[in-house]
Predict the structure.
Amino acid sequence: MESIQILGLVAGICTSSSVIPQLVKTIKEKKASDVSWIMFIVLILGNALWIYYGGSKSDIPIISTNIFSLLLNTAMLFCKWKYRKKTNKT
Amino acid sequence: MESIQILGLVAGICTSSSVIPQLVKTIKEKKASDVSWIMFIVLILGNALWIYYGGSKSDIPIISTNIFSLLLNTAMLFCKWKYRKKTNKT
């Protein structure tokens, strides 16, 4: 693997993993009212487009980090849906 | 401009602009205690690395959207610093 690819992967890990603290916070507190629906839907759409873009250029850092990011953002969206239902019940 | 470059730019606008709702919310409410410092520092580092990566591949969508994202994340970090001081004073 070329050094520039490693740098791309590190870049991708930084920008993808930034949602992890938010995800941990949401799971701990079991609430996500402060988090915007639109934000995560737009992010997921963006990740899907980046995966397509990376695929067309055979760019491993773009593809791999956006798949990772897509999974994290989907988990976040799932948490938002899950904890919203819980709040409504109580 | 090739259609794949336009697609890359759209992807970048989606993933970069996702921070705008958070920024607007923070400016409106004048508080950012729920927002993680580490998250934005890691994001800014990631953007800087992506700009370098994009530069080495002459990839316009990567460079331009990460410059945009870097500016937004820096603004967010500035807001967090600004509103934290305000809260301490009152």
Notes: The first helix of chain A runs from residue 3 to 17.
